[in-house]
Amino acid sequence: MFITLAFFSCAIFLSVPAGAQKIKQLPPPPPAPRYKPKPTPTPEYEVVRVSSNLVMAPVSVTNTQGQPVLGLKTSDFRIEEDGHPQEIAQLGDPEQVPLDIALLIDVSGSVVARFAFEQQAAASFLQQVLKPEDRATIFAIDESPRMIQPLTTAQLAARKLLTVTPSNGYTAFFDSVLAAANYLDKSSSSSRRRIVVVISDGDDTARILGVSAAQNRSDSMKLIGVDAQLQLIRKAQLDTQREVQRAEITFYSINPSGRTMHLNVRTARSEEGMERIAAATGGAAFVPRNESELSGIFQQIASEIRSQYLLQYYSNNKAGGTSFRRINVSTPAQPQLHVRSREGYFPKGK
Length: 350
Fold this sequence. Notes:
Layout: E1 54-62, E2 78-81, E3 84-86, E4 88-92, E5 99-106, H1 115-129, E6 135-141, E7 145-152, H2 154-161, H3 173-187, E8 193-199, H4 205-215, H5 226-246, E9 249-254, H6 265-281, E10 284-286, H7 294-307, E11 309-314, E12 325-330, E13 338-341, E14 344-345
Helix pairs in contact: 1-2, 1-7, 3-5, 5-6
């Protein structure tokens, strides 16, 4: 807040002898000093993304049993950018940084068997993990991306989620993730953490059918070959990963297919693609064996989000430009701990 100082001139009345013919004119008062306003202080835990070399890296630390490790200090961490050590300026408190979560639920035919249970578990997750200052948005992964609910409170988002019905259509997985990432990038401010949680098998049949239709000249539909499908999926995975990284989003996936994802090469590669995006952004990918594990997975994600360390440092990288910069975080004194963070970031142009 700026404080404006006002200066008031006081009139000075002089006693003059009765015989005086004239009142001597006083010299004009000196000009009032001009004070430069103090800049507005930056919030203590602001996530700076624009025109700044301050970088924030959310870090999850777990022990050998997979449980979050709490109580670590700045001195316990080592962080490098493009191989160069960085000085940690601050260890932020995740409780002080509100969340914006995009929850994407697959409504296509490939996941319809468990849809109702997944829907209930996801709604409970939103209500349990989000605080009053947090927000959630809902997307349906359908034949094309569908925003069900813009950013709102946990209660309203959960209520809207429960109105979604399966469509039994094709799966526009990559376009839906890109739509959610783009929405968060534009709608979420720099003072909030961005998270995407996807419930899907990741098998983008809509894109394969679209490319197949474009290449067919006959009335009958013929799918492109398996090798072409895998190449298409691989490129789409890399493109999607890059955009999620640009938006500085942590990506989590839950694949409800279980062991059936190994029935063919394409579905297995689709799961591997979700795992790759999760690893690149500091998130995690889960494959529950049955419905009973789903609630526990949501609880694990919630616990991780709330127990992350927010490492902040001023990059000493003088390279300039907007090329991808790699980050490596470790705990040298406790090498047995499992440290997970995003692999890097794209500097924002000034």
